[in-house]
Every structure is written in structure tokens, then in C-alpha cells.
């Protein structure tokens, strides 16, 4: 069968360097996938039901796809994206798929095109480019396969060679689907991660009610600072009982604070009483990052900080469709000053791992690499979100390796909601890293045997070690 993906895609054009990249890639292409951070739904693995139609699987939940189409004037409602008010949206999967196929050319040159072609070709056996003319044929072929047992979530989990995958649940989640997975006896390893944004960000919708619910769940007095911290410790322990090895924090900035107990309690009391302002909210978010880092020293959870996204940039889209609708936009982010309070408190701790991500590439060489290249607690997360792309990955390696090296990074994680794209995303990362290593070998900056060791580290070992999986 003819593939939509060339066998040498993303490898260097120069023959001698390409041959090194090919040899490196051959040793890592079939390694198991470690997926330590993502947003796939644990319900899929718990119930193991057939996936819905092609559009509901591949288009409707994927903001990489519908944000591009929306930017070209296509209504989200016509793509089946739900509205908060319950108003009618398109539900005919074939119509949604046709609309997508007619406009697939918009994705030329993007990583989304790379991932989708990989999925269409490698997973569903489609060998014709997706266009308006091939829309119905491809839809029928995908729908036919989705009805087969070998295309159910657990079977695909095995087919994708996933060793472990971490989903991400909010602090108030009851983890019922993780419990169902465990009780089912299935041997696929699906773990959770602790995402407490709804109960650490005073600007989060329903924050006060969320704290009340946190107290109800844990039996702690979340009207007091000490009770509030105790509630977090209990929830973290509960998440660990379902395999969690990390917490995840999606703050607008990387600001941290290290207040005294008395100052922190007074700040919390102002917020709880509704007498706080924007500066208090910013300070509280910063204090909670440091508190979470201190808790990680006790319970071993890896602390992930995902700052720099200006969430819900369009108030209209947010009001109509809610969060995660493609309108989270990168912004400038400070790390050196912002992280200093946290680093003063715990940065030298060898038993703590804080994984830093960024949407501000200008900070790679200037701030992030020097920080991670000095503080034992810090590691650099891979190129993320808007920069989860071949060029973004190359820039990451080029701007961080000379100061932080490879071993202060944590390999690759796919951070995806689109389950079928997981192998595609890991394949892109492995190809880009092999190409980068091949260049270093060709320039005599790295011995060939070292490059082979590093290829495995970057594709598999570093993520497994950093996330304690």
C-alpha cells in the first residue's frame, strides 16, 4: 500500500547525514510509548466501547483542527463543536467530515497535517490524499474499521505500543473511570495526574464553591489555611492510589511566592472572605506553586508547570463554547525572577523534580536552559502546544542543549486529547531528534555510539525516569 508519509520525512536532505538519521531512527521507531502527560479520557479505556463516527473521533474534539478552520470563517457549530447554551450544532458526522476534507488544504505545512496523514495512512489504511472528492470514501473506510473489535480503545492501546499513559484530572474528580479500569483487571497501564487549577486559582469559575466541595470530599476545613493544605495532601494521596506520579499546573505566569505561614494564612483568609484583589490572586497562585513543590518533596509527585497561555482570549468563543476551544494564545513569560522564590525554597533539592514548559521560545536560551542547567530540581519539558512541531522541536534542541544538555530534559510527551494521534506525535519527535543527533555526529560534536545511546534516552528512557514511571 502506498503511504501518505514518506519514509524519510523530517530527515536531513544531505545523504551522509540522512543515512545516520535513518540508522538512529531504526533503533527507536518501535520502542514502547511513554505518554506521561495528556488529556485522553479514561472513560475510553474503562468502558472499551467503539469510538463514535470519524468526525466525532478526529475533528470535533481537536482544537488544533477546528481553530484553523474557524480562522478561515468556518463556524464551530458547523464542525459539531457543542455550545454551552445547548443550541443546535451539526451532528451528522459525514457532513462534518466533508467540510473538513474540502478545507484540508488549509493545513499544508502544519504539524496537524503531518499527524492526520499519519493517522489516515498508518491506522486506517487510506492511501489517497484527503480532498472533497475522497471525503466519502475515506469516511466510509474509517467508519467501517471503527466498528471492528481491533479498533476499540484497549486494542489500539496495545497496537500503539503504549507502555503507560497518564491522563489529567481535576482535584475534584472522583476518578471513577480509573477505578473502573483497575477493577476490570485489564493490564493496560493508565494512571492519572493531579490538576488542582480549579482550587488554587481564585479567578477560576466557581472558586469558592470549589473549595467547599474540596472540603466535603476530604473532610477538611477548607475555610482555614491549614485545613485547605491538608485537603490538598489528602487529594494528592488519593490520586497517587490510582497511579499518579505527577501534578500539573496551568498558570498564566510562572510567578511563585514563599510567604511565611502567617502571611499565607492572612492572604487565604482575604480570598476566602471575598475581600481580595487581582494582586492577591496573583500572589496566591504563586504561593500555591511553592506549596505544591513542598508537598512534592513529601509525596514524590513530579511538579509540572505549564505557564504562559493567555487563556480564553476570545470572550465570545468562551461564552458560547467554554474552555479549550482554540483561543488560548501564547504570551511573553518571565522565569528567572518569577521562579526565584520557589527555587530559593526548594531548587537545590535533589529529590524534587519540577518540569518547566513554555510557550515563549525566546526564554529557552536566555532563561530556561541556564536555570535547568544549574538547579538540581529543574528539568525542561519538551516543545509544547504551539511549538509541538518539527521546527519547534528543532529550535528547542538548538537553543537548550548547549547550556542544559540532554539530561536536564525529559524526553517527549504528546499532551494530546486526540488518542489516534499519539503514535504520530511520538514518531515526529523521534525523527526530529534523530535528525538533530545525526547532525551533531556529522559535525564531529558527538560520537556515533553516543548518538545511539541518546536516541533511546530521548525517545523512551528520559520520560520514564523523569516521571517516575
UniProtKB/TrEMBL annotation:
Pathway: Carbohydrate metabolism; pentose and glucuronate interconversion. GO terms for biological process: D-galacturonate catabolic process; D-glucuronate catabolic process. GO terms for molecular function: glucuronate isomerase activity. Keywords: Isomerase. It catalyses: aldehydo-D-galacturonate = keto-D-tagaturonate; D-glucuronate = D-fructuronate. Its EC number is 5.3.1.12. It is an enzyme of class 5 (isomerase). Pfam families: UxaC. Coiled coil: none annotated. InterPro entries: Metal_Hydrolase (IPR032466), Uronate_isomerase (IPR003766). It comes from the Bacteria. Belongs to the metallo-dependent hydrolases superfamily. Uronate isomerase family. This is Uronate isomerase. It comes from Aliirhizobium cellulosilyticum. The gene is uxaC.
